[in-house]
Amino acid sequence: NALAAFFDEGGYTELYADENGTVAAGYGTANGCPAYALAQNGGALTGADVAKMVRVMELAAKTGYPIVTFYDSKGSVLTEGFEALTDAAKLVEAGAKISGVVPQIAVVLGTCAASQAIAAAAADVTIMAKDAELFLTAPFTSAAAGDKTEKAGSAELAAKDGIVELVYESAEAAV
Predict the structure, then answer these.
(1) Which residues share a beta bridge with 127?
(2) Which of 19, 90, 93, 108 could form a disulfide linkage to 132, CB 3.0–4.6 angstroms apart?
(3) What is the distance between the alpha carbons of residues 31 and 144, in angstroms, rounded to a whole number?
(4) Which residues, other chains included, contact 157 with Cβ-Cβ below 8 Å and sequence gap of 6+?
(5) Alpha carbon distance 88, 11 (integer Å)
(6) How far apart are CA 115 and CA 55, in angstroms?
(7) What percent of the chain has pLDDT over 90?
């Protein structure tokens, strides 16, 4: 659990715990500093997950406390259709609204694709686990279209391109 590992002594208050989904949210202290955090659990995001993420960003903006987002998602739930695109735009917009208001830290622990990759790259600091993936277009799709970029989507390439500031050997170390 990224939230338990992130917050001091694993102690934090879970926010919106009654809303099951791909995203967990919490508030607590990290190294003695108050912070909000969001953690994706590897599944596909629903509109409710995005709404939860936006609400926590708004809480961070009201208090001035930083927000840390742990990215690990398979993308959007495709059965939500065009609503998934609207939700993606809402998430990017929420991040833009709090930019310069509160520090935003992105920690990529697994797959971080499409609009999630835009949100992670727009954070003030972006951290990645060495074996995580960060991409706008899936590397296998780009390769099929003729893109010959080696290590596309890798932490190594993201760091080389200046998108990621820190790369850690493991997800645990990145947290």
Answers:
(1) 107, 166
(2) 108
(3) 45
(4) 149, 150, 151
(5) 30
(6) 18
(7) 67
pLDDT, greater one: 114 or 16:
16
Q: Which two tokens stand for residue 28?
A: 């607590």
Query: For 83-119, how does the pLDDT look when each residue is reduced to its tens digit (9 = 90+)?
Result: 988 998 999 999 999 999 999 999 999 999 888 898 9
Contact of 50 with 90, CB cutoff 8 Å: yes
* CA angle in degrees (0–180, nearest 5) for 83-88-89: 100
Amino acid at 114: A
Contacts by residues 74-80 (CB-CB < 8 Å, ≥ 24 positions apart): 74/42, 74/43, 74/44, 74/111, 75/44, 75/45, 75/111, 75/113, 75/114, 75/116, 76/44, 76/45, 76/46, 76/114, 77/44, 77/45, 77/46, 78/44, 80/46, 80/47
Order of strands across the sheet that contains 67-71:
12-15, 23-30, 33-40, 67-71, 104-108, 125-129, 166-168
Q: Please choose, from the candidates 71, 53, 46, the residue with its C-alpha nearest in 3D space to the C-alpha of residue 15.
A: 53
Predicted confidence (pLDDT) per residue in 49-69, tens digit: 999 999 999 999 999 999 999
| Tokens describing residue 86 | 């609207």
Place of tokens 């208001």: 101
> In whole angstroms, what separates CA 67 from the centre of its chain?
10
